Amino acid sequence: MNEQTPLLEDEYDIEDHWIRDKKVRWSLYGAGGLFGIFVLWAFAFYLPSRFIPESRPFDGIQMVKDLNVVFEPITPEDSEKQFDPSYSLNSKGSKQRLILIGDVHGHYKPFRKLLRKVNFNNKTDHLLLLGDFITKGPHSIKMLDYLIEHKVDCIIGNHEYYVMNNYARFHNLDPPFFVGNEDDNKNVFETNGGFNDDPEYLLAKKLQPHHIEYINQCAVIKTLGPVPQHKAKNEGSHKYSDGIAVHGGLRWDIPDLESQHAVECLEMRSLIGPYFNESTDDPRADRAVSWSKIWNLKQKEKNDTDTKVVYYGHDARRGLNLKRFAKGLDSGCDTGGDLSAMVIWQEKARKRVMYKEQIIQVQCDD
Ligand SMILES: *[C@@H]1O[C@H](CO)[C@@H](O)[C@H](O)[C@H]1NC(C)=O
Ligand SMILES: *[C@@H]1O[C@H](CO)[C@@H](O)[C@H](O)[C@H]1NC(C)=O
Ligand SMILES: *[C@@H]1O[C@H](CO)[C@@H](O)[C@H](O)[C@H]1NC(C)=O
Prior knowledge:
- This protein has helices at residues 4-20, 22-51, 76-81, 108-117, 140-149, 158-171, 182-186, 199-206, 209-216, 262-267, 291-300; strands at residues 64-66, 97-101, 125-129, 153-154, 221-228, 240-246, 270-272, 279-280, 288-290, 308-312, 321-322, 326-328, 338-349, 352-363.
- α6 (158-171) crosses α8 (199-206).
- The protein has a 6-stranded mixed β-sheet. The chain has a 5-stranded mixed β-sheet with strand order 4-3-2-13-14. Strands 8-7-9 form a 3-stranded antiparallel β-sheet.
- It folds into 2 domains: 27-56; 64-81 and 93-363, Purple Acid Phosphatase, chain A, domain 2.
- It is elongated and about 105 Å long.
- It contains 11 helices and 14 strands.
- The site of one 2-acetamido-2-deoxy-beta-D-glucopyranose has 3 residues, from loops.
């Protein structure tokens, strides 16, 4: 018995004395602490940064761009066949149809369904989206990837602009700005709410530099060249006007497009009487009248000299809204309505050219 006791103490010493040594113990605590801090840092900063896309500073948003596309008149036989998916028009380099699509809002499946229905062919068709192609719906990133891959043309909507502002906030960049629009750039934009669970902020966090590059090159206004002057009836017209595309609307009292106010162009729905020289996005505001109604009246007063037809989106509440000089194409895809395309083309009719357009729609049920 006496012999065993020291032996036990010896074993005890051998196994444990290194942990009882104060220096060793404190170094272990130190190492553990450092490791803990490293783990915290990794989870809090390093790992998330691996998933934060690189940021890309903004270029100025252009106020007005020209479509820069030559449209070739087609023969009436071609036009009968062009909505038949098995038929493909010959390509001569120039384009044959201009296709305008209203607010898609990330509804990628109805968008693709609509392209199939109009038999979209990127060799012979020029596709232009009228803004608000992202946010709200389920597939904003997929939309952007498609538009980039297929080089689809765009104008900017208010929601692209809001997402750009959220992107600037997330990456700590200077906010987006409009070229030559000093007044609009002075009004520092308040991102709506500014909370970090704002869906437009969450979308902005996911955007890659090439997504921002795409959105950034969408102008506020696009001039389209000659478009038909009638109420989208299929028989067409020899009369044409200059076409303009804008997301929200235009002030009739500012004839120079470069001098329009960018944010108004993105957000307006109505003008306020009695002078209609002030815009609002609230159609129920006191003395507010739809900007397109005023625009249409003012163009009629011009007696066919220098009239302009405006194609726009942004007004799902008023829905598809076809006037002679103003054509609203937001038919409420995001709220279970339709997605609308305006297809515009020219036909050879004896020696004259006939200007034609047609609305094609699909139901949004994704
Ligand atoms: C048409 O789309 C393809 C991708 O599907 C692209 O490579 C090509 O450049 C586009 N052509 C035109 C004229 O935009
Ligand atoms: C609108 O026009 C009226 C009459 O010309 C003018 O008195 C008023 O200041 C204008 N309002 C704005 C906001 O420009
Ligand atoms: C258009 O015609 C009407 C009636 O013929 C005339 O009163 C008006 O002044 C004309 N407007 C322009 C801009 O020429």
